[in-house]
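Notes, p. 3: input format for complexes.
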Amino acid sequence: MLADTIAAVATPPGEGGIGIVRLSGSDAVAIASKIFKTRQGPHFSASRSHTLRLGVIIDPETGETIDEVLACIMRAPHSYTAEDVVEINCHGGALAVARVLQLALRHGARLAEPGEFTRRAFLNGRLDLAQAEAVLDVIRARSSQGLSAAISQLEGKLSQKITVINDSLTGVLAAIEASLDFTEEVGEVSASELEKLKHAREEVLKLLATWEEGRLLNEGLKIAIVGRPNVGKSSLLNALLRQERAIVSQIPGTTRDTIEETLLLGGFACRLIDTAGLRETADTLESIGVARTRQAVKEADLVLMVVDLSTGILAEDKRILEEVTGKNVIIVGNKVDLIGEKENGLKTFAASYPWVTISAREGKGLDELARKIREVVLSGKVARTGEEPILTRARHRDALEKCLEHLNAAIAAWENGIPGDLIAVDLWAARDFLGEITGATAREDLLDRIFSDFCIGK
Ligand code: GDP
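Output follows (458 residues plus guanosine-5'-diphosphate):
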């Protein structure tokens, strides 16, 4: 048990309806009782767990009333941290909240470090490491799919899967170790144990196959908008931004060459990059732009290639399309408002690529574009039932890949008649990497790194 009691403001800074000061630790109730006086009924420290009490925060030294609040005790182990927790709901002004926190600190609490509440939840066994990370993913989720993947991980779906794989490796290890007492040959260990190992490997591979989609959910889809000058690339970006009022963040471009914006499209958080151009040029500044554009295209999950229907397809459009072959491309015919229903040659130009006609100026065709984006993104992806866990963090992917290497080595060794004690070494290592995901074998520096990403108060 961690002895000291930590405190922090758990709500975001600024004005709000309420602001919450949270305390956790063995003295949480005693400290809160010094500064919180209930209006009526039993003394605060005698409150029932998980019950709100109305009262005032009073500075015991001056007798001054700081705020009228609702406070609640959540007794160990039935709390977020599995320790005694007190939450004080203040009025949401920055000053009231800050003064309540100050009083708590003056009367024996210590200011919590970033993520320390969640770290305690982990250390006390309330959450494993993958679940603790999911807390952060829930907070940061930028799309509804991202949120549901995070919630499923928070509920322990990924951890359960890892535990099942781990348990089967443990079973195989036990069989090998038992056989070592009698013989050097694993061949003697029943063939069904080798089958179990292969099955575990299948499960690891299945999980690894979800990474591509999980990465998209967590990091967002990278989309590069390319096309000749004046076809309406910036207009398209702006039209999408106007339509999707849920702009999540803005990353101002550092140069004039690329501008990046994040928005929700077809249910995915998308990072749209408006590129300068792909034109061969002698102008150095512009050629830097071309290099950046090429880089953006290379990194993109999807390319929107914009053409101008009012000028028709030009040789340069064809050249640009060649430049992006091999990528996921959607051809976007813009300025349809200028030509109406007239035949526009887009279908021939697009050939096997999906295409849409839009008017960035009038906001036409953008829903269709979002639908196409969704189709392209989801095509070729494993259809998920929502029950199966999915990998959303590079850390988990890396650990699973290392686990897979050791499983492959163990299986190959087994099939080549290598002695059991050598196979066991690989199986132990495979299990260690699984343990890194759930935190069973995670080292202190890894924990530091993970929890320092959190905000104070979480
Ligand atoms: P970019 O160089 O590809 O980023 O092109 P811009 O977005 O700057 O647009 C170039 C010009 O085309 C501007 O004058 C826009 O107003 C115009 N434009 C863009 N989209 C449309 C559209 O859908 N219809 C019409 N009529 N004009 C458009």
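DSSP finds 17 helices and 14 strands in the chain.
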